[in-house]
Amino acid sequence: MEEKEVKIRYTIYQTIEELSKEEQLLLEKAKIATKSAYAPYSGFNVGAAILLENGIIVTGNNQENAAYPSGLCAERVAMFAASSHYPDIPMKIIAITANSEKFEVNFPISPCGSCRQVMSEYETKQNQPMKVILMGSKGDIQVINTISGLLPFMFHADELKQKNI
Known about the structure:
Elements: E1 11-13, H1 21-34, E2 44-52, E3 57-61, H2 74-85, E4 91-100, H3 113-126, E5 131-135, E6 141-144, H4 157-162
Parallel strand pairs: 4-5
Antiparallel strand pairs: 1-6, 2-3, 2-4, 5-6
């Protein structure tokens, strides 16, 4: 038997002003995206903003549905829109934030497992890291420099292709 350990490196910022102007703008766009989220069931509005390598910013927000799980998370809405409209432009940074009508979101919001897997697929496809910025409606900000920091044991179809599966 061999025991191993996974370590995740990330940076915590106390204020948005500590981020670069580019990252501040991206978080602001994510906050704006929360305002048009469709979340009548949870009251939990999530916004995502993606900075593409060409400087374009694509946003998305969560879209709930009475027939759960037919809705879609903000991160996937933004990534699918970016990939659909700009299929060959790499995604540099994704910023994710949330607010709620029911409670104060004073902690960084982390993507669900499905979103992490989709993010890892795009990071693999573009063959370069995608930075992730996480924030609640207030409080600390977490920055992870690659998707593998969020999903260390990600599923890679390329590995199966190499084994002819």
